[in-house]
Structure formats: C-alpha cells, structure tokens
Amino acid sequence: MNREEYLKILTEQIRCKMARGEVSKEISGHIEDQTRTFMSEGLERSEAEELAVREMGDPVETGNELDKVHRPRMPWGMVALIVILSIAGYGVYYLLAARCVDEAGNGVVDVSLHAGRQFLYLIVGLVVMVGVCFADYTRIAARSRELMVLLFAGSVVGIMFSGLTINGARSWIDLRILTVNVLMLLMLTVPLYAAILYRYRGGTGGTAVKAVLWMLPGTGMAFFCNGTWMSVILLLTYLIVFALAVWKNWFQIPRRLCLAAIGAAALLLPVVAAFYVGFFGEDYQKERLGAIFGTGEELNFVSAFVRELLTGSRLLGKNTGLPDTVMMPADPQEIALAGLAGYYGILAALAVAGALLFLLLRFLHISLRQRNQLGMLMGTGCAAVFLIQTGIYIVNNLGIAYFGTYCPFLSMGGSGAVVTYIILGLMLSVCRYRNTAPERRFGKMQGRFHTE
C-alpha cells in the first residue's frame, strides 16, 4: 500500500471533514520522516516508503483512534449556563419592572406587552446561536473585509434613509417590521476585525498600519451615532485584539515598542473621550459625564438611587427600607443587579453576576489556549468586548458611576439579543472545533483560502 492509498483510507475514518486535511498533512509528515530514515540505511525510496507506511499500522484502526481526538466537542456545560443566564436575565428584568412606577403610580413598563416580544427575541437568539455554533467559523476569514464593508455600508444607508433619533442618539434604523440598533450591530465588527488581522499574518510595518486603520470605521460609526462610550469600548477591544496579534509576532515590527504604544493609547482613550464630551458633547452627554465624576445632578440621581438600593440589603430577601414599588430614575435593565440585591438579596445578585463573569472568563481562557490562531483571536475579541461591557455595568450597579451601558443577558431589546447570541455562537464554535479547526492561508492573487 502506498502513501496516498493509506492516507485516503485513514482520513475516511475521520467523520469531521474539517480535520481531515490537517490529519493527512501530519501523518504524511511522519511517513516522510520515517521514509528518509530508511533511505539513510540504504533502501530505495519506494521500498522505504512502503515500509514506513506499514509501520504506521492499520489505517482503519489508526483512523478510528484519530477520529476520537479530532471530533467536534460541544461544550454542553457552557450551553446550559447560557440558557440559565438567558432565563434569569429575562426573569430579573420583569420582576423589577413590576416594581417600577411613574410619578402617577402607574407601571412604567407594560410587562404583558413586552414580555412576549422579549421572549420571542430570546428564542430567535438561541436558534441563531445554535446555527452559528455549528458553522465553520474559520471560513469567515475568507470574506472578512467584504463583510466588514457590507456591515458599514448597510448601516450608513439605513441611517441616511430610515434613521431614527432616540434619546438624542441617531443610532436606530426603522425597517418597518422591526427597529435595528446600529450600536449593537457594531459589536459584530470585533470578530470581523480579528479575522482581518488573521489575513495579515506575516505582514510588515505597512500591513500593521493597515490593521490599525481598520479600527477606524467601527469607532467612527459609533461616534457618528452619538455612541461615544460604545466607540471607546470598541476601540479598546480592537486594541486588545491587535495587541494579542503583535504579542504572537504576527507582524514584522518592533514588538515591545508597539505594545507600549498600544498600552498608552488604551490608557489615554477614556481621558480623550471624556475631554471631548466635556467640551463638545451634547447636553445629555455632558450631564452623564458629570454623573460619572459625581458633579451632575439629574443623572447622578441614578447612582444615588443604586446606593440606596444597596444600603441595608440583606444576603437573602428584600431590603426592609425599600417600598414594594418605587419610581426608578433609570430603566430597570440598567440597574438590574442593584435591584436584584435590594429586592431579592445580595446572594441573588452575586449569583447572576458570578455566573456571567464565569462564563465570559471561561470563554476567554479557552480562546487563549486555542491551537487555531483565528479561533484564538476571534474568541478573545468576543470575550473581551463582553467583559468590558460587563465590567462597566457592574460599576453602574455598585453606585460608583452611571454609564448606562449594555450588558449581555441583563439588557433587553431585539438588536442586542440577536447580536449577543451571534457572538455567543461564535465563541461556542471556537470551543466546539478547538481540536479540529484547520489553519487557513490566503493566496495573494486570489481571494480564496486554503487549508495549511
């Protein structure tokens, strides 16, 4: 049996087609090494290769053993935790909404109207997550730039012809049957940016400059939509992804100098954003900035209310100093953890926050240990953007500041839900294919990729 016949029979035993090319390359390399060893002992190449193939063992048995190793493994524990957090976030919001009244004592949120709609978003999101999870995430890199351009072009056209201004931000697109939040869509640029960097592996300083320039469309679009803090979050995430690529020596540039520059940019970014908002921002943005630094009045009332919720909170059960219904100064979804601690106990809030942080940190840990470089970078970027938002959200719910940011599972809305579950699906796909996903290389003349 020659090498080609052996590899054909062996790879047919591997059910995951994604892994066959990588396995074939590895086994072929072993056969070639052993063939050279036998040739050094005086054998002819054909005889040496036949002997090397024979020493590899039965191709069916070897293939079955490799199939056990290179099989997609669904992280069922993480899927279960996602479902639990989805249900918990849905329940927490409507428990708190039932306690929220306006100045006339009426419910601020029509629970009966919103409950069914949000439940539909939840189901659609979970279905989308499953579909993305079973997809081959490595193929995103083949069209990452085109997808990025398409996302920006669609957002610009949508805002120009169907844009809506809500709460001072022109970040909504009215599609008649649904309304899309562009700021939520921009989170999808994080895995796309990671895929673009993957295409640039091995590039020189000029390529690194291109990688930096690809940060501008996402942050610029968020800024244009009056999402100043979202632009900061996105740029911080891009910097983290770029820094990881630099750390892995993907570019032929001075690594230490570049990492120092990235660190300085990340530290200065919030300062620059605060300076801009303080001098050139809208009135509501300046008020929110004042609330962050404790100098505002109206929006700082949110932080004061959060501290009131937390003061006197018990480990379990309701804070006895709180009324059954209260006029909340913010949407319940923005202070869900504080409300949970005040009305249902600190342990309840810690359980939800702890489960969320555990899930995201687990995703980050698995991503950083990926053998596949694209999976490593995409998974890290997705986990990072959620961790940054969750960290800010926790700061809000400790009464330290008020940013009014998004948080996975705890923030409501259709756009946020669908985008969240797309990103979760990508991270699950990275976990699922961690032993099978092949590396890809790209031809310079063709816009196609090949398995290495």
TrEMBL record:
It is found in: Membrane. NCBIfam families: perm_prefix_1 (NF038403). InterPro entries: FtsW/RodA (IPR001182), Perm_prefix_1 (IPR047928). One of its GO terms (molecular function) is lipid-linked peptidoglycan transporter activity. Its EC number is 2.4.99.28. It is a multi-pass membrane protein. Belongs to the SEDS family. FtsW subfamily. Its main location: membrane. The chain crosses the membrane at residues 76-98, 118-135, 147-166, 178-198, 205-223, 229-247, 259-279, 341-364, 376-403, 409-431. GO terms for cellular component: cell division site; plasma membrane. It is an enzyme of class 2 (transferase). One of its GO terms (biological process) is peptidoglycan biosynthetic process. This is Probable peptidoglycan glycosyltransferase FtsW. Peptidoglycan polymerase that is essential for cell division. The lineage of its organism: Bacteria, Bacillati, Bacillota, Clostridia, Lachnospirales. Keywords: Cell shape, Glycosyltransferase, Membrane, Peptidoglycan synthesis, Transferase, Transmembrane, Transmembrane helix. It catalyses: [GlcNAc-(1->4)-Mur2Ac(oyl-L-Ala-gamma-D-Glu-L-Lys-D-Ala-D-Ala)](n)-di-trans,octa-cis-undecaprenyl diphosphate + beta-D-GlcNAc-(1->4)-Mur2Ac(oyl-L-Ala-gamma-D-Glu-L-Lys-D-Ala-D-Ala)-di-trans,octa-cis-undecaprenyl diphosphate = [GlcNAc-(1->4)-Mur2Ac(oyl-L-Ala-gamma-D-Glu-L-Lys-D-Ala-D-Ala)](n+1)-di-trans,octa-cis-undecaprenyl diphosphate + di-trans,octa-cis-undecaprenyl diphosphate + H(+).
